[in-house]
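agent> Task received from the user: take the single chain below, predict its 3D structure, and emit structure tokens. No templates, no multimer pairing.
agent> Plan: (1) validate residues, (2) run structure prediction, (3) serialize to tokens, (4) report one or two observations.
agent> Step 1 OK, no nonstandard residues flagged.
tool_call: predict_structure(input=
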Amino acid sequence: MPETTPESSTAAAHRAPDKARWLHRLYGLGPVIGLVLLCIAGTLLNSDFATFDNAMNVLTRTAFIGIIAVGMCFVIISGGIDLSVGSMAALIAGCVIMFINEMGPLLGSPLAAVVLGAVLAVVLGAVFGLAHGLLITKGRIEPFIVTLGTLGIFRAYLTYFANGGALTLDNDLSDLYAPVYYASLLGIPVPVWVFLVVALIGGLILNRTAYGRYVQAIGSNEQVARYAAVDVDGVKILTYVLLGVCVGIATLLYVPRLGSASPTTGLLWELEAIAAVIVGGTALKGGAGSITGTVVGAILLSVISNILNLTSIISVYLNAAVQGFVIIIVAFLQRGKR
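)
tool_result: status=success, residues=338
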């Protein structure tokens, strides 16, 4: 039996952290590798997949969920959850449409009404997020229960305002608002640019600010964060406000797409946003995650849907089932994380 020397023990001790570090990096690259493989598969299955127009279509459709997922990433990293974002988006859309329709003639300036409507979307998102944060921190109610309750409240109020039908933008106002969704800058649709800006700002906040470090610390161990004099309640409230602002931004981009809001608007957006965060590598238990991974996760899920729509491998009605299997597989792989 070979003799163990102090030098060999030291070398082994150094190799163990190096191996763990490389495994962590490989795990972090998982979503990117998965996205690359999916894109290769999509190109082989249908040549239309690799076109610029299709890429822009995928990114535009990803933008709404992706923007919300950026905010959701902060909430999940902090150890929270929000099940209401789809219903919140629907109510915000309905309120914005009613506001613009009323203020257009009143102000005598359709453009001013549209601009104020866009501002209203962000303000409402922040207010709803603030309400969630206060109920969770000051009311000491679990995030799951609070947002499960508001999920029903938000959608019920939209249904009430729409009288069970749909709220629709007036034609002239709709035409004025349309470029927010349909216009392009340097050949890239406006929603994609907004998604990029939101993701960049989110990444900077999470990785380069004290607030971002506090969010991760709270998700890792809330009690330790309190002992370290972190304002846990304040950080949590701000996190839900940030998510609400992201929902508002996504909604103001979504409204001109159809020019209407109905009880089915934003249906299951919360599940798609949570899925994008989890597929992107953020642990549902909180404590660690990345905006880059979240963006990749959102695009990856959209690419899956796009490939299934362009091919006839399985029925398009099974898109959600395929995404569900992906989520479960990722969750299974994460079970040993942290």
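agent> Step 4: summary for the user.
The first strand starts at residue 167 and ends at 168.
agent> Done.
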